[in-house]
Amino acid sequence: MNIEFLKKIMNERNISIYRLSKLTKLRDSGLGMIINGKREDPKISTIVKIAKALNLTDDEFIELCGYKSHKQD
Q1: What is the reported pLDDT for 72?
Q2: Residue 33 to residue 1: CA distance in whole angstroms
Q3: Which InterPro entries match (predicted)?
């Protein structure tokens, strides 16, 4: 998971860990561990909940998962 990308999106959208926990219905302590790098490989279901809560595009979701998006123009 691309933690730096997650932090960037949260910062741009002014969303705190507490707010994200409410949007995802995940514990704020668990999200904090992910964001602080103490939980390296969250479940895909957790990543999907985060992506949905942040209304990420497909390309943003790919980047959140730790992959580079290769858009075809």
Answers
A1: 53
A2: 13
A3: Cro/C1-type_HTH (IPR001387), Lambda_DNA-bd_dom_sf (IPR010982)
